Amino acid sequence: MTGGPEPISAVAREELERELAELRTEREAVAATLRDGGGDEVGDRADQADELQRADDLDRLDADIQQIEGRLREASVAPAPPSDAVGVGSSVTVRFEDGTESTVQIGELANALDATLVTADSPLGRALLGHGAGDTVTYETPEGRTSAVVVSLG
Known about the structure:
This protein is α+β, with helices and mostly antiparallel strands and about 150 residues long. The chain has two domains: about 10-75; about 90-154, Transcription elongation factor, GreA/GreB, C-terminal domain (Chitinase A, domain 3, Roll), CATH 3.10.50.30. About 40% of the residues lie in helices and about 20% in strands. The protein has helices at about 10-35, 45-75, 125-130, and strands spanning about 90-95, 100-105, 115-120, 135-140, 145-154. A five-stranded mixed sheet has the order 3-2-1-5-4. Strand 4 (about 135-140) and strand 5 (about 145-154) form a beta hairpin. Helix 1 runs antiparallel to helix 2 (about 45-75). It starts with 9 loop residues before the first helix and ends with a strand. About 20% of the residues are buried.
């Protein structure tokens, strides 16, 4: 990661927007259950504790919404992925030790629906960041240390 605004893939953007919509819906539901604070103290301590819990839930949802909105804003002003070195948002063709090649997208968020996505904080993603075509990278797998060659950046 560069420390500046990082681009995100279209798949990651869609995932963040979906999560944001779900959080907003959940927030509306929780907010609708809170009393308006009119001073009527008609409930027992369990009701008051439940009210406090919902208020805490609302605060957590607001923080999550702000974080995602900020990430989407940041991604919208991020420069394009570098074309000469692997970065977040790059599409990379890699040749593994067994000779197989695979084209992967370096992303920020894991997505089970996108088998070509490699997160930047995964062992392979971390190894690839900053490298260019022709470079050999080494990384850890559950089976041990392995390497791959960056064939091209797309």
